[in-house]
Amino acid sequence: MISIWGQIQNILEKSLNPGLFKVWISPLAAEVRDDVLRLVAPNEFVAAWVRDRLLDDIVQAATAVLGSAPTVVVDAAAPGSAPRPLRTGRPDAPVADAVADAPAHEAAPLAAPAVHVAHAAQSVTARTASGVAHPSQLGLPLDMPASTRALNWRFSFDSFVVGPNNELAYAASRGISRESLSADTLFLSSGPGLGKTHLMQAVGHALCGVSNRAAPRVEYLTAEEFATRLIAALKAREVDRFKARYRDVDVLLLEDVHFLQGKERMQDEVLATVKALKSRGSRVVLSSSFAPRDLKNLDTQLVSRFCSGFLAHIDKPGFETRRRILCEKARLHQVMLPDNVTDLLADRIRSDVRQIESCLHNLVLKAKLLNRQISMEMAWEVLGHYAQQEVVMDFEGIVRKVCEGFGISPQQLNSRSRKREYVVARNSVFYLARKHTELSLKEIGDRFSRRHSTVLKGITSIEREMSRETPLGRQVSNTLSLIERNGRITYP
Question: pTM of this prediction?
């Protein structure tokens, strides 16, 4: 005789997508006692996924079998526990699938939106010395953080300051979050620190603000994290689970897609994922430091997908926009920022929004620590750490300051040597030239007799090291900050 759980599984198998059933329902064991259906998953990730996304389906199927709606509790098997069969509480039901016993936990609230925020800083995956997750160190699937609520989003549309430089990107991001944008794919591009991440998170925040079961399923991560998890899934032979997670969402937010350059296996998976999402009517938001036309060593089909939606570029903010950013951030800090201080900071710091926010944050902290009002004198003191004279750097000035900062000669900088310090210095020139000049990637490469793709790869490498905050990344970041503070001199 088929067990009660077996009957429920039969109903679910007919009502759910075959892939969903195989990955998420098949591994579950169950028992029924006093109108409580207790399910045990092989690990907490599977348990959380089932609670967030399949609980309603399970309740409906169980109601059809039991005649009344049971209370469904989903637990995770205790790590390392010996397998022990679960039995139903009814005499006519045989032993269910064997599974490790687990302590009872309170079921997750049904109101929790199914959202996964995937940043390296939040990752709890055990890693080997090489930085790749090892299957023996953590229950599968690897590097898959549990779902988190909307309040974990750091940015929203309400805190985004709109100006002529970003109004198109803002409107498009708003549109795709409200489904009023005719395109189902949005590609955001800009230099560092100009608002790509803010808009990406604002889309997720807006979508997940509805605290009910109808809330869209959203995945948010960088292309590098996507690749890392794919590698872990391949090593652990959990590719089906990986695919089920990222292809069964309503919205995919994928940052820094330029990381995919030259990585064919990763490109194939991203392309297949985007195709699968578009076929089911889902939305995709992508971001990059480069426009699609500038990306090299990418599958032409993938580039075509990037270009098939709406493309929006974010430029550097003008004075008025920078001023309004300062006023908005001061409001969030709950401080009164004098008009003359606001004008000073807006005039002196022009490179990116991140530096504007950092300068204001340090100014506010200094005022609080000293228990003093913010003044022009204090602003000048803090400003000295960010900008002395805001004059656009030209290419020759950048080369000179980088050589001084790294202690090398222009000949060594321009050589074909692959010594680490030379490569890092050249990449730093590429990064600063793109940030502070109007030169194209090709024009920057021509100055060093390098190809366009080499320049792009170098900039990506520098950005990745700084974002990871590795020892090298911190060293480069400090050096570049020093160059930017003291190197703003225009040479004839």
Answer: 0.57
